[in-house]
């Protein structure tokens, strides 16, 4: 656990970057620091591994004040990932990843073997190991940065806007990858971002900071969206807070109808205005309107019980039928959520 | 075209004379002297300027030394210095020649080493410290390999200058390839002048090539980006 105890950072020029910050980043969870540019996120993060020293207050790692630990020793036990990856250009990828193991005096073979294992873990082809950083794309470099931070298996990982310099598609896959890794590794992660969507997606807990380095609110993402502490947080969360909150509402309780599916070759003639055509192996094929049974209309799916209400609503909006197709993990249709069912679920979500 | 023919005649006369290839005033002996003076001066300059440049670039303290040295290099007349040191120290030893050569060779190495280290991407330096490298490790394992092309460039510039300026050492009565030129002019033996100049140019070319090779061997392909992106 990382504890901030009334931490203040005043730079020599008088700027107060962090002001009386007290919070805890619990073991095995992702704590996100989010806030507008210049609010003191980076400063807060870098005080944990003593890249910056606090002016007042103290930071504790599992109860031990970091001020008492020699900075290089402290840093070797804390993974650190930065925006531009900061890979060593003169070293091959495998040796970049093995940086901290080498520093810790592991023998070369063991360090390299560990590096290869981590490259695979972060989803990089082992053929990249012998390349130099300039031969990799930005997204690949960022993955290497994560692998390097994990190499000596530190319990704590600090990440400073690690994904903000890559394009949105790559960013999404890096975020998913991080969540997948975290499910396996259970690190104590402090993640800095200015992007509230990223904060909500990744954080177990989100600390919203305001300019001047004061904590505005610390809460889990769902609470943050439903109960912002004040106008600053509300404004920072943005306009579509309600929709985004649906991301945390499960579809497990969503009522599905199973009587709206028909087989391929259906010629019309049910009492319903819309029917879902399902192939022999259970996959959805398309919607047909009763009036025009020969025209297949588009459909949207969500994995029932796993995906959120936001996905279900999105699926419904993708189809002229206004219904969302619930599928199982294998993509087989398990039922259809009609507008009425979605309505009920939304009403429930709005209440609680 | 007659001057070209005369030029080649002189070359043939100079290099073709078997007497030129032996004795204390022969080509091998003069070449060796030239090499000795240049190598000694360059080695001393490297020993002084590289550590100093690394230290100043890494700590950011003492930048004024770099600035002053760069300006002095432009302001000081090498020949003047040479004559002054010979007058001060006498012409009995090599030092009156070596000291000005070293003074001449230090600034390019110092400035380039300093700039090379200081110019390393701050993010990279930051990442190195963030991984837990200590100050000396950051310098030795990250900054120097990344700044190496500039450090070598400084050494190469100095080497070329030293090789060229060592020619002037002949004025003080010392040896080296400059002797051919000075003695040639004194005796109106133009074959000797031309032959000596050609030797100096070749010498400088070889130095260039050696540095290019050293660069290839010591600079990581990740820094020189010599490899193609596969
Ligand atoms: N080395 C420094 N010296 C003086 N002021 C600084 C320094 N680093 C950051 N600041 C100031 O401290 C505040 C917080 O900076 P930072 O922690 O980088 O914010 P963020 O990461 O949230 O964008 C800003 O006002 C910034 O200008
Ligand atoms: Mg920042």
UniProtKB/TrEMBL annotation, chain A:
InterPro entries: AAA+_ATPase, ABC_transporter-like_ATP-bd, ABC_transporter-like_CS, P-loop_NTPase
UniProt GO molecular function: ABC-type quaternary ammonium compound transporting activity; ATP binding; ATP hydrolysis activity
Gene3D superfamilies listed in its UniProt record: P-loop containing nucleotide triphosphate hydrolases
The ABC transporter domain, residue ranges: 2-237
Claim: Nucleotide-binding is one of the keywords in the record: yes
Record-listed E.C. numbers: 7.6.2.9
Transport found in the keyword field: yes
Family: Belongs to the ABC transporter superfamily.
Record-given protein name: ABC-type quaternary amine transporter
Organism whose genome encodes this protein: Nonomuraea jiangxiensis
Automatic annotation (TrEMBL), chain B:
Residue span, ABC transmembrane type-1 domain: 31-211
Subcellular location(s) per record: Cell membrane; Membrane
Bilayer topology: Multi-pass membrane protein
Pfam families linked to this entry: BPD_transp_1 (PF00528)
CDD domains (alphabetical): TM_PBP2 (cd06261)
UniProt keyword annotations, A-Z: Membrane, Transmembrane, Transmembrane helix, Transport
GO biological process: glycine betaine transport; transmembrane transport
Domain of life of the organism encoding this protein: Bacteria
GO CC terms: plasma membrane
Transmembrane segments: 37-57, 78-106, 138-155, 162-182, 194-214
UniProt-listed PANTHER family: GLYCINE BETAINE/L-PROLINE TRANSPORT SYSTEM PERMEASE PROTEIN PROW, POSSIBLE OSMOPROTECTANT (GLYCINE BETAINE_CARNITINE_CHOLINE_L-PROLINE) TRANSPORT INTEGRAL MEMBRANE PROTEIN ABC TRANSPORTER PROZ
Family per record: Belongs to the binding-protein-dependent transport system permease family.
Full protein name: Osmoprotectant transport system permease protein
């Amino acid at each position: 656990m990382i504890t901030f105890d009334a931490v203040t950072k005043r730079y020599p020029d008088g700027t107060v970057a962090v002001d009386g910050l007290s919070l805890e980043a619990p073991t095995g969870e992702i704590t996100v620091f989010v806030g507008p540019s210049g609010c003191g996120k980076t400063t807060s993060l870098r005080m944990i591994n003593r890249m910056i020293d606090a002016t007042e207050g103290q930071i504790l790692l599992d109860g031990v004040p970091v001020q008492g630990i020699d900075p290089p020793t402290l840093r070797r036990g804390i993974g650190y990932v930065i925006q531009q990856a900061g890979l060593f250009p003169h070293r091959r990828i495998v040796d970049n990843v093995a940086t901290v193991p080498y520093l810790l005096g592991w023998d070369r073979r063991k360090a390299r073997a560990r590096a290869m294992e981590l490259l695979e873990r972060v989803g990089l082809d082992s053929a990249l190991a012998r390349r130099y950083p300039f031969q990799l794309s930005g997204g690949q470099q960022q993955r290497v940065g994560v692998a390097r931070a994990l190499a000596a298996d530190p319990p704590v990982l600090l990440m400073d806007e690690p994904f903000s310099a890559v394009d949105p598609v790559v960013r999404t896959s890096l975020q998913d990858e991080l969540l997948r890794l975290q499910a396996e590794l259970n690190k104590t992660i402090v993640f800095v971002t200015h992007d509230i969507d990223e904060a909500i997606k990744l954080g177990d807990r989100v600390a919203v900071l305001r300019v001047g380095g004061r904590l505005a609110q610390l809460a889990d993402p769902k609470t943050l969206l439903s109960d912002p502490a004040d106008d600053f947080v509300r404004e920072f969360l943005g306009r579509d807070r309600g929709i985004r909150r649906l991301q945390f509402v499960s579809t497990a309780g969503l009522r599905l109808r199973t009587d709206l599916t028909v087989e391929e070759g259906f010629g019309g003639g049910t009492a319903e205005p819309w029917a879902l055509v399902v192939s022999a192996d259970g996959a959805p094929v398309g919607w047909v309107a009763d009036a025009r049974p020969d025209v297949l209309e588009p459909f949207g799916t969500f994995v029932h019980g796993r995906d959120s209400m936001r996905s279900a609503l999105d699926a419904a909006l993708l189809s002229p039928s206004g219904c969302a197709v619930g599928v199982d993990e294998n993509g087989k249709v398990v039922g259809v959520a009609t507008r009425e069912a979605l309505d009920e679920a939304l009403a429930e979500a709005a209440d609680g | 075209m007659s001057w070209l023919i005369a030029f080649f005649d002189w070359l043939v006369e100079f290099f073709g004379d078997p007497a030129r290839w032996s004795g204390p005033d022969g080509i091998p002996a003069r070449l060796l002297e030239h090499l000795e003076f240049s190598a000694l001066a360059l080695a001393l300059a490297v020993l002084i300027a590289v550590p100093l440049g690394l230290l100043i670039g890494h700590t950011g303290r003492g930048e004024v030394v770099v600035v002053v040295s760069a300006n002095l290099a432009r302001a000081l007349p090498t020949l003047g210095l040479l004559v002054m040191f010979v007058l001060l120290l006498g012409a009995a030893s090599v030092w009156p020649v070596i000291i000005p050569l070293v003074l001449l060779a230090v600034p390019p190495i110092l400035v380039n080493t300093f700039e090379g280290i200081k110019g390393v991407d701050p993010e990279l330096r930051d990442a190195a410290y963030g991984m837990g490298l200590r100050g000396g490790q950051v310098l030795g394992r990250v900054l120097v390999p990344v700044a190496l092309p500039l450090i070598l460039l400084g050494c190469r510039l100095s080497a070329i200058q030293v090789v060229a300026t060592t020619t002037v050492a002949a004025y003080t009565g010392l040896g080296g390839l400059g002797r051919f030129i000075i003695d040639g002019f004194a005796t109106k033996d133009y074959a000797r002048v031309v032959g000596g100049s050609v030797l100096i140019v070749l010498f400088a070319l070889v130095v260039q090539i050696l540095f290019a090779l050293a660069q290839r061997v010591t600079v990581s392909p990740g820094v020189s980006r010599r490899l193609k992106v596969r």
